[in-house]
Amino acid sequence: MDPLRHHAGPLQPAQPGGGARDAPPLPRPGDRVIPWSPLARGRLTRDWGEQTERSESDAFGSILYQDSDRQIVERVADVADERGVPRAHVALAWLLSKRAVTAPIVGATKLHHLEDAVSAVELELSPEEIARLEEPYVPHAVAGFA
Length: 146
Known about the structure:
Elements: H1 53-57, H2 69-83, H3 87-96, H4 111-120, H5 127-134
Helix pairs in contact: 2-3, 2-5, 3-4
C-alpha cells in the first residue's frame, strides 16, 4: 500500500501539506491521498445557505468552512448547470482529476449518493473548468487533527 502523506479535507484544494483537489507534488512517487468528505459534508451539493438536518446539528462541520468557500460552492453549481449534471458529479470529478487521489471517502447514506459517486467517474472536467473551480480558494488551517 502506498504511504499516505497529505491531509485532504473538504474544500481544501491547495492547503500546504494537504488538500487533494490541487495536491502539491507528493514527496515520493507512488504516494497517494484518500480524501475525506469530498462533498464537504454536502455543501458542494446544495446552495450555500440551504439548511439540512445535518448542517443544523453538526457542530464540527460548522467550524470547517469559511465565507470565502461560498464562491467555490457557487462555481460547482454553475459548472453543474452548464453541464446538465448534478453538483455531486462535478465535485467528485474535480477531485478525481487529481492524480494523487486513490479513493475518496464518500459517506453515502442513500442509493443516489452511490450512483452520483459512480457517475462522476465518467465526467471529465476541462482544464478551464478546474481552474475556475480552484481560483477562489483560500487556504484553511487543518481542523480536527492534532
